[in-house]
Amino acid sequence: MRLKHPLLILPFLILGCGSQKQVPETALESITADDMKKHISVLASDEFQGRFPGTEGEDKTVNYLTEQFRLIGLKPANGDSFSQEVPLLRLTSDPDKSLLIKGGKTALTLSSPVDFVGWSSQTSELINIEESELVFIGYGINAPEFGWNDYEGIDVKGKTVLMLVNDPGYATSDTSLFNGRAMTIYGRWTYKFEEAARQGAKAAIIIHETGAASYPWSVVVNSWSGSNYSLAVNGIAESDLQMQGWITTDYAVKIFESAGLDYNKMIASAATGGFRPVSMNLKASVSFSNKAINILSNNVAGVLPGNKRSDEYIIYTAHWDHFGVNPSLEGDSIFNGALDNATGTAALFELAEAFVNLPERQDRSILFLAVTGEEQGLLGSRFYVSDPLVPLNKTVGVINMDALNITGKTRDMAMIGLGISGLDDYMIQVLEKYGRYATPDPFPEQGGFFRSDHFSFAEAGVPVLYPSSGVDDVKRGIEWGKAESDRYIA
Ligand SMILES: [Zn+2]
């Protein structure tokens, strides 16, 4: 871990105390690279076992967070506790299963996880889908504001919907469709499964395509063929679908062929406004055993009360969780998660300490919130929004930190979702004051704005900021910075 100058977090400090004031040295000086390093090396140590929710790694992480918040001088945010329990379900469906497609020219058997992955958010021990009618539903989008409804004219109750990933704007690069190449919420798999459930479908299957998904099939397999997590509402899973799943493009082509449909023509027509869902005259069947276990995880939160408008809150968030341990890996099997997101969690401590060190208390109260289950679908932040520790209508802004800059000082700062939030202007002003500048999301087609915890708050109408690393390296220039960023991602 190279961590030279965690300077990028300084502007947040200024934002928190009002952009006009000068930040006193005592507060600034308390943010140090050494402190960041110390926290990161504890959180990302092997002892913390990759900080997976519901494990001993969680206990250690939650204890460390609590201890640090207390030492810094924050107040518990949940009565006399720093913890907020987050009820989760761990759902494990038998990976050894097949999806059968019958009724067409040839009967098809898709094997998991080579050709398809499927899982259930239901708590029943056996999932059995028998001869459910297969409907091609285009992009599976019902978006009144874009005048778009892929479900128009069909009742999908009890049926299995088959759909494309991303959205028509991405597919056509047409800037008049959705948000052009930049992904909208309608392009996210989370939305697609939720909408299918709202429409009453029995099962929902997304056709994988590497470019449109922004990740290869191996990521689909790694993400969904083991255990999956869901928020538990009264011990019950959130989704009404019997099965969610993905299939490979290769098998999608075969399924369309079997139905006597031209795959390329169908996907082209799905990206046009006149698209109507197509009943494929095929039946889908799948049966597998399923195990649901209740888990209690924790968000950890501390408050620094404000001086003048203490009923109003600014929230700094960072997810503490990472991917845990994969015992099937030889040698080092621990996913330590130093960057993602021990850096953001360490920054919570450093910011809290800096605010505490201000000679004059800031006006608004500040909640420092370390959330669980981000990697499993923003679960901790979604739970927080459904059961907030301070009122959402008194939460004036949320600043999320997820994987900070580790390459060195940069002139720029990427602001994921630039243009969406009224908070942007404050951030831009602060950057300018330091001779720096804001840039938009470098990969808008990947939908980064929907992929970390600030999004849970944005959905609830709270203004959010999600700053990310720049590439315009102060010493080595922009080409070096870009190459370094590519090197890390590769
Ligand atoms: Zn992260």
Q: Which terms would index this structure?
A:
single chain, 490 residues, alpha/beta, Aminopeptidase, Glucose Oxidase, domain 1, 2 domains, 3-stranded mixed sheet, disordered N terminus, binds zinc ion
Q: Which ligands accompany this protein?
A: zinc ion
Helical proportion, percent range: 25-40%
Class of secondary structure makeup: alpha/beta
The CATH superfamily of the largest domain is known as Zn peptidases
Poorly predicted regions are 1-11, 14-20
Overall body shape: globular
Relative strand content = 25-35%
Number of structurally distinct domains: 2
**Nearest-angstrom radius of gyration?**
23 Å
The CATH first-level class of the largest domain comes to Alpha Beta
CATH-derived topology of the largest domain: Aminopeptidase
Question: Biggest sheet, in brief?
Answer: 15 strands, mixed
Mean pLDDT, all residues: 92
CATH architectural grouping of the largest domain: 3-Layer(aba) Sandwich
Count of helical regions:
15
Oligomeric state of the chains present here: single chain
Number of strands: 20
Distance between the termini: 17 Å
